[in-house]
Amino acid sequence: MRGLMMDQPLLISGIIDHAARYHGDTEVVSVGIDGHRDRTDYAGVRKRSLKLGSALLKRGMKKSDRIATVAWNNFRHLELYYGVSGSGLVCHTVNPRLFPEQLVYIMGHAEDRIVFFDKTFLSLVEALQNQLPNVEAWIMMEDHDEELAKEHSWLEFYEDFIATGDDDFNWPDDIDEWDASSLCYTSGTTGNPKGVLYAHRSTLLHAMMSATPDVMGFSARDSMVPVVPMFHVNAWGSPYSAVLAGSRLVLPGPFLDGESLVTLFNEEKVTISAGVPTIWAGLIQYLETSGNKLPHLERTVIGGSACPPSMIDKFRDNYDVDVLHAWGMTEMSPLGTVNHLKNKHLDLDADKQKEIRLSQGRPPYGMELGVFDDEGNQLPNDGETQGNLHCRGGWVLSDYYLADPDTTIDDGWFPTGDVATLDEDGFMQIRDRSKDIIKSGGEWISSVDLENLAMAHPCVADAAVIAARHEKWDERPLLVVVRKENDETGAGDILSFYSGKVAKWWIPDAVEFVDEIPRNATGKVRKNVLREQFGDVLMET
Ligand code: ADP
After folding, report:
1. pTM as predicted
2. Which domains does the chain have, with CATH numbers?
3. Is the pLDDT of residue 515 over 70?
4. What is the distance between the alpha carbons of residues 134 and 132, in angstroms, rounded to a whole number?
5. Which of 31, 126, 216, 288 is 20 to 30 A removed from 245 (C-alpha atoms)?
6. Catalytic residue at 522?
7. CA of residue 328 to ligand 1 center, whole Å
């Protein structure tokens, strides 16, 4: 017997419809590229998203056509999220921090028909334009600018474009919840980037899960700033999940430095934010030098790479901000785990609680994790046995977009490429990327643990640990450090900081000082670059 309930497809347009209907006057604040703040609300976002959808269809876009965005977090980008997906097209968010050759590859592979971009990226787009002959329109997300129009005959403007849409347009009714809604490419540290094609249904499941208390915990009382860019796995889904909950949304535009963010958080009374550790390191540095506080911010989600424990402590102890350490991947929409205590932990003393809060957290309903050995045998969830981390769930990809056959996922689990431990409550701790782990004399050493400790040293501004080749042990850890400004601390001082904190044989063999740690377009350390540079230094001595 089938249940007798209505059939309501899980569609992205349904999120903005709900927000406009019941949170219509809830504000959306948006910082422009010149720093001024635009203010609209969910009724306004829906109205213009619809008009945009109408304009796109009138221009000849057909179901599932890809529409690219190269843009900051701002209100027009939010309209594109809803207007493009809502009208049955695929919103392809492109990361402008990638190299131009990668952008040409990605946009060619996706066969984007229209590209919307922020004025900041005009010269980038000019460089791409003649290499992407199949793009039919390049639309700058601005008002009409006669001077620019004269200089660039190919250029169109968002406000002109949206004006061509009909006011009485409604979302097309032939959209299925399994239809493709948006597309992101992985950053591709090795090989070409790969496309992850999200569906309306997976996006809605991820958004509903994200809004629950033990994940991001969004409510209609929150004011949310996604610091994580909307071109980085859809700002971790927050432009869907926060809107679904009716949270007030504050979009920071291009201003992601410590001072700009603290000013925005305090002036707009922001309660929750989300971003990668490097952004928060800059913000804490600004707070420490300026003496400013964060009176309104209650919590922030930190993920994308391991959040150093010293950062969790500083936020909690000095600024009364709760850090929610999270882990995920583009292939997982992206959320896999978030760290929240359970009821049984509430009576533990502060130190024990702190220890639990350091891991990447546990999966919410809808996500399953497992650790496996190299032969594919599942390993115990005992908090100690580390193995290859695999996952499955309703917002995990089943295959890459137009993939080579060798990338197909065929045993029902997605192999994340991370090495981790899992305990019986599902608390997961990342030990390393499988390709970054250090194998010394046959034993594994976690570069993440060593990096976290180095980051707690008062003179260290940034740190990475790599596997350096070693005659006797095959590999030994090597610490690469950026010292704080004007600091002359020596290698011996930094290495002695490890004493008593890790097993003796884990302590790195040497320290290399650099001005900057190389990072990729999503803020992850490019360990292959460091390995190329320093991988042999222990062989020479
Ligand atoms: P995202 O764009 O969400 O960062 P990517 O697909 O670019 O996702 O990268 C995912 C990888 O980033 C993970 O497989 C993992 O290695 C790393 N990562 C993400 N979050 C964390 C975290 N909290 N701790 C350690 N590594 C993390």
Report:
1. 0.90
2. 12-255 (3.40.50.12780), 334-433 (2.30.38.10), 438-539 (3.30.300.30)
3. yes
4. 6
5. 31
6. no
7. 5
